[in-house]
Design goal:
The complex is a heterodimer of chains A (266) and B (265). By secondary structure, chain A is an all-alpha fold. Chain A is built from twelve helices and no strands. The two termini of chain A are 30 Å apart. Chain B is mainly alpha-helical and 265 residues long. In chain B, strands 1-2 form a two-stranded antiparallel ribbon. Classes of the chains: A mainly alpha (266), B mainly alpha (265).
Chain lengths: 266, 265
C-alpha cells in the first residue's frame, strides 16, 4: 500500500476530478455504490467498471498505482466466490462487484485530499471518532516509512535471510515490537504538540469550495445516469436481459475512444 | 477474521443496515463514555494503533487469502472503550482504500470490535491464570481462541443472511418480484459450459457448507500465524514496557525518552 503516491496524486493532481468539490465526488461515489448494490447483472457491473476505467484513463490518473489497490479485494472476493458460488457466473459477479466498488473508492481517494474526505465523515460522527480518523490516516505515512527503515536496518545487519528463517522471524517480530513502542511514544508527543496548538477535543477541517461547478454537475449527473441504468436493468430485467451485452460493449467503445483521443492529443 | 471479505451488493440490505445501526449505537455509547481529558489524551494513541493495524493488514499471505490483523494487540493496548472507536476507524479507512466495502462497514466494524474486545478479555483472563511471566503463552492462546470464535461468527453471519453464492444474486435493494437472475449466455448467445445454468437459486445450505469447510480449513493456518506474531510482539512489549499492557490504556502515561526503553543508562 503506497499511500505516499495516493496522497501526492490527491494533493498535486490537476485533473477535472481534482477540481470538483469533495461533496460532489462523495455524492457521485455513493450513487455509483448504489448502482453496484442494486444490480444483479454481470454485464451491468462490467459496464460500470469499464466506465470507471475510461474515467481514470481520460483524467490521466496514476493507473499503475490505482489498479493494484483496486484489484487487491479481488483475491478475498474470489475466495468467497469459490467457497460459495454455484457457478462461474455468480462467482464472476461477486468478484466484479468487489473490484468495481474498490476502483470507485480508490478513484475518490486519488483525487481528493484525505482531510476533505474525512471532513464529511466527521460531520456525522462523534468528535472522538472524527479526530481518531484524521490521526490514523496521518500516522499510516509515518509508520509505513518507519517500518521500511526498520526492515532495511535489520536486513543490513543480516537479520532477515531466507537461510535462517527462525532468526529472520525473531528479527521481524522485534522490529514490529520496536515499531509499536515507537508508535506509543509518537502518540504521546503528538498529543503534547496538539495541546500546545490549542487542541481541545475537536480537529476542525474546512471544506474546500468547488473550483469547477460544471464538473460537479456533470459528475453527479453521470453517476445518476449510471444508477438509472442499473435500476432499470434490475426492474425490467426480463425484457432487457437479451440486450445486456450492449452496456459493456458501449463502455468498451468509450474506453477505446478515450485511449485514441489521448494518443492523438499527445 | 477481522472483517468479512464480502463485497458491496452481495449481502441483503436488512443485514448490512442492521450492522450499521448496531455499530453506530456502540460507537455512540463508547464516545459518550469517553468525554474526559484522560480519554482525549489517548486519541492520538487510537489513531496510531489503528494505523498500525492498517499497515499490518496491507500485506496479504496469498495462498490462504489471509493478512495479519494485530487486532488482539490493539485490543490489549487500547482496552474496550477505545477499541470500539479504533475498529470503526480501521474499517472506514480500509473501505476508502478499496479493501472491504462501504455498505459492509457496519458489519466489519462489529467483527473487528468483537475480535479486539474478545482478545482483550481473554488475554487478561489467561494472564490471570498463567501469571504475568507467561505473556507470550497467554496472548497466543487468546489469539487462537478469539480468531476461532470470530470465524464462527462470520459463518453464522453468512448463514443468518441466507446468502451464499447461490442466493447472492437474489438479494438486494429492490422488488423481490425481479430477484431471479437470468444469464444471456445460457440461452445460447455464447452457450459454453462455463456460463451455463444458475437461473434459479439452488439450496443455500450447499454453498454454506462449502463456505464453512473452506473457512475452517484455511482459517487455522492464519490463526496460528497471527498467534505467533501477537505472542512475539506482546511478549516483547511486556519485557520492555510492561505498564502498557498491565495498567491499561487509560492509566497515567509513563514518560520514557525514546531510546531508553530498557531503562539502561
Amino acid at each position: 500500500m503506497d499511500v505516499a503516491v495516493l496522497d501526492r496524486s490527491a494533493v498535486s493532481g490537476r485533473s477535472h476530478l481534482h477540481l470538483a468539490a469533495p461533496r460532489a465526488k462523495l455524492l457521485a461515489f455513493a450513487l455509483l455504490l448504489a448502482s453496484i448494490v442494486v444490480t444483479t447483472n454481470l454485464f451491468v457491473v462490467l459496464a460500470l467498471l469499464l466506465v470507471l476505467l475510461a474515467l481514470v484513463a481520460a483524467e490521466r490518473l496514476p493507473a499503475r498505482s490505482m489498479l493494484p489497490l483496486a484489484a487487491y479485494p479481488a483475491i478475498f472476493a474470489a475466495v468467497f466466490a469459490f467457497a460459495s458460488a454455484p457457478d462461474a457466473l455468480a462467482a464472476a459477479l461477486i468478484v466484479a462487484k468487489a473490484v468495481t466498488a474498490a476502483l470507485a473508492a480508490v478513484t475518490l481517494m486519488f483525487t481528493t485530499p484525505y482531510p476533505q474526505v474525512f471532513a464529511a465523515v466527521q460531520r456525522v460522527t462523534p468528535g472522538l471518532v472524527g479526530d481518531a480518523l484524521l490521526m490514523t490516516y496521518r500516522a499510516i505515512f509515518i509508520l509505513a516509512d518507519k517500518l521500511a527503515d526498520l526492515t532495511r536496518a535489520i536486513r543490513l545487519r543480516a537479520g532477515i535471510a531466507g537461510t535462517h528463517p527462525v532468526r529472520s522471524a525473531k528479527a521481524t517480530t522485534r522490529a514490529l515490537g520496536g515499531l509499536l513502542l515507537y508508535s506509543v511514544d509518537l502518540a504521546q508527543r503528538e498529543y503534547d504538540v496538539l495541546v500546545l496548538r490549542g487542541y481541545s477535543g475537536r480537529l476542525k477541517v474546512a471544506e474546500h469550495p468547488s473550483r469547477s461547478p460544471i464538473t460537479d454537475r456533470m459528475l453527479v449527473a453521470g453517476a445518476l445516469a449510471l444508477l438509472g441504468v442499473a435500476t432499470v436493468w434490475r426492474i425490467y430485467w426480463i425484457g432487457l436481459i437479451d440486450y445486456s451485452w450492449m452496456l459493456p460493449a458501449l463502455a468498451l467503445l468509450g474506453l477505446g475512444a478515450t485511449f485514441l483521443f489521448r494518443g492523438r492529443k499527445r | 477474521m477481522s472483517h468479512i471479505h464480502i463485497p458491496d451488493g452481495v449481502l441483503p440490505v436488512w443485514l448490512w443496515l442492521s450492522g450499521w445501526v448496531i455499530a453506530a449505537a456502540l460507537i455512540w455509547f463508547a464516545s459518550t463514555r469517553s468525554r474526559g481529558a484522560d480519554v482525549r489524551r489517548k486519541v492520538p494513541l487510537v489513531g496510531i494503533i489503528s494505523a498500525l493495524v492498517l499497515v499490518s493488514m496491507s500485506s496479504e499471505i496469498v495462498p490462504i487469502a489471509y493478512h495479519i490483523n494485530l487486532t488482539v494487540v490493539a485490543g490489549v493496548l487500547l482496552g474496550p472503550q477505545l477499541a470500539i472507536v479504533s475498529a470503526f476507524v480501521v474499517q472506514v479507512v480500509l473501505a476508502l482504500l478499496g479493501h472491504g466495502g462501504v455498505t459492509v462497514i457496519g458489519l466489519n466494524t462489529l467483527m473487528t470490535m468483537a475480535e479486539m474486545l474478545l482478545g482483550w478479555a481473554l488475554f487478561r483472563a489467561f494472564v490471570r491464570v498463567l501469571g504475568r511471566t507467561r505473556v507470550r503463552a497467554a496472548s497466543g492462546i487468546a489469539t487462537v481462541v478469539t480468531l476461532a470464535i470470530t470465524t464462527t461468527l462470520l459463518v453464522g453471519l453468512v448463514a443468518a443472511s441466507g446468502v451464499t453464492g447461490a442466493t447472492a444474486r437474489e438479494t438486494g435493494a429492490l422488488d423481490p418480484q425481479n430477484l431471479t437472475f437470468a444469464s444471456p449466455f445460457s440461452e445460447g448467445v455464447v452457450g459454453v459450459g462455463l456460463f451455463s445454468g444458475g437461473e434459479k437459486a439452488t439450496a443455500p445450505a450447499v454453498g454454506l457448507k462449502r463456505f464453512a469447510t473452506i473457512v475452517y480449513t484455511l482459517g487455522p493456518v492464519g490463526w496460528l500465524i497471527e498467534a505467533l506474531v501477537t505472542a512475539a510482539i506482546l511478549g516483547y512489549v511486556a519485557r520492555v514496557r510492561p505498564s502498557l499492557i498491565f495498567e491499561g490504556p487509560l492509566a497515567p502515561t509513563e514518560r520514557i525518552l525514546p531510546g531508553d526503553e530498557l531503562g539502561v543508562h
